[in-house]
Sequence to fold (199 residues):
Amino acid sequence: MKRMIFATGNENKMVEIREILGDLPLEILSMKQAGIVADIVEDGKTFEENALIKAREVCKLAGEMVMADDSGLEIDYLNGEPGIYSARYMGEDTSYRIKNQNLIDRLQGVPDEQRTARFVCAIAAAFPDGREMVVRGTIEGRIGYEERGENGFGYDPIFYLPERGMSTAELSPKDKNSISHRGNALRKMKELLEKEAVL
Fold:
């Protein structure tokens, strides 16, 4: 069975990735499982650029097929913040409880219809032969007025889905994967991989 390394140290992400790509004939490893240590500088200007930087770098080190993602939250009222800086917003070691509260505070008094936001996920694949692929997935929603739900991670508790009447942290993992930005991007990547017959 072919191996594929996903360039992340985030175990929550790995669970989602394995669930969505589980039926591909691939052994999916995290960087840690593949024994790869890399300090990658993500200095791209877009989610796509950052995902490609990570995939290329790890592919060079591993000499194997690598996927990487870059994802984040864009809030329209805040001019797209935190955007590509979502993970580093207010400092990488700041808890998401504090980050989430800060965003809620910054939107104080802003009415529902102006609280629009989206989660964005770009996934890049890099291959030892130099081929590269990039896809983008999104999910639209609004910023809630408080944290709700225990199932998600990161900004999930404040990302509210009006049509579901709940936050993405209140969805079951299966429901979340079926509509999430990462789920959408992974399914697009899966289609590409099958179409290009790289597996």
